[in-house]
Amino acid sequence: MKELTQKEKCIKGLKIRTDNQSIDKIIGLWQKVPEMELTGEIFAVYSNYESDHTGKYDLLIGNSESTEENQVIIDEGNYLVFELPSALPEKIGEVWQKIWSDESIYEKRLFMTDFEHYLTDGSGKIYLAIK
Questions:
Q1: pTM for this structure?
Q2: How many Å apart are CA 28 and CA 31, to the nearest integer?
């Protein structure tokens, strides 16, 4: 885990309103990604939080080149960055479980705009907006 400053970025893609208990809905959105014919890096952006990770939020999957109408702005600011050991869903879930269970991370989070960033080499990172 490291801290860095992220520049503002516009991501376009498919969006749903969901929560962390609605795994089937989240999986359903991911299953639509091939239809979007995205090339290059892919982002999964969490925004418009109702409260914290236990409440509802918007999830948009796409990239800056997508032709989809839905869009979200990744806010400029400070972020905690977590390297993903693998882009396999179960490995990503393990990292999120560690994030959710760490009180020191929770206290730093803004719950404004967080995102997963998947690179073309198969690696990925999770970015959490922090104070």
A1: 0.94
A2: 5
